[in-house]
Amino acid sequence: MKIATFNINGIKARLPRLKEWLEETRPTVACLQEIKSQDDGFPGSELEDLGYHVLTHGQKAFNGVAILVDKNAGYSAPVEVQRGLGIDGPKDGEGEQARYLEIDVAKEGERPTRIVCIYLPNGNPHPGPKFDYKLAWMEKLRARMGEIWSSEVPAAVLGDFNVIPHDDDVWSPKAMAKDALMQPESRDAYFRLLADGWTDAVRTLNPRGGVWTYWDYQAGAWQRDHGFRIDHILLTPELADRLEAVGVDREHRGREKASDHTPVWARLRD
């Protein structure tokens, strides 16, 4: 099983790049963030034509997550388990933002694997209500991940966590020191997930850091390789034991009209 996460930064603007990536790399499960589309406006039929089951949790113009499952990999149609964490946005009356989607995937007669796709709040500007919302969302996420852990189902939580865990996960710690992505509270909340027993797949196989998953559109960040790692894959012990390889499809960031993120993947033994 090859699982992947990709913040596409708008499905309408990035659909050609997404289809290229799916056709060239063929992940078994792909978690997408920032689709920026309501469910009924998502071009699911085009991705189904590529051989994928499509589940979405969308929102008009902002946020939104989706999960794609390869029909040709021997898996049954995915089963939705939960959408949303039950936490309202930072503005009064805003309601819940579309940032969380949880499903089960399984082959015939086999135990299901839980897949969770998240788009964690950015939290800027810091300090302020958006940062407070980020920390509250992470607390809700931890609680839900604890419930998944207690169910003893093999599980992976993938997505844009909007947290730079370590100083060697960013081109310049000094340049990002005041950003919400690197605040001690953000990092501590992330490390609490790991302390609960979850494995950071990319970090496990790249312990010295230096792996970027995001390059800003501004100031020539891509051309100067001024990037950082905020797209993560967390695994329960059963899946961590099956971890064979991880990778960042860095080349896709350099294509025309690319997302500012690049796909991140992990390959698990059957």
UniProtKB/TrEMBL annotation:
From start to end residue, where is composition biased (Basic and acidic residues)?
A: 251-260
Could you say which residues are annotated as the site Transition state stabilizer? N162
Superkingdom is Bacteria
By its UniProt entry, which PROSITE patterns does this protein fall under?
A: AP_NUCLEASE_F1_4 (PS51435)
> Which GO BP terms, alphabetically?
DNA repair
Q: Which InterPro entries match?
A: AP_endonuc_1, Endo/exonu/phosph_ase_sf, Endo/exonuclease/phosphatase, ExoIII-like
Give residue numbers for the site Interaction with DNA substrate: H261
Show which residues form the site (Important for catalytic activity). Answer: D231
Pfam families per record: Exo_endo_phos
- Free-text remark on how the cofactor is bound: Probably binds two magnesium or manganese ions per subunit.
- The answer on whether this UniProt entry bears the keyword Manganese reads yes
Annotated residues that bind Mg(2+) are located at N7, E34, D160, N162, D260, H261
What NCBIfam families does this protein's entry cite?
Answer: exoDNase_III (TIGR00195), xth (TIGR00633)
Designated name of the protein:
Exodeoxyribonuclease-3
Q: Which organism is it from?
A: Altererythrobacter xiamenensis
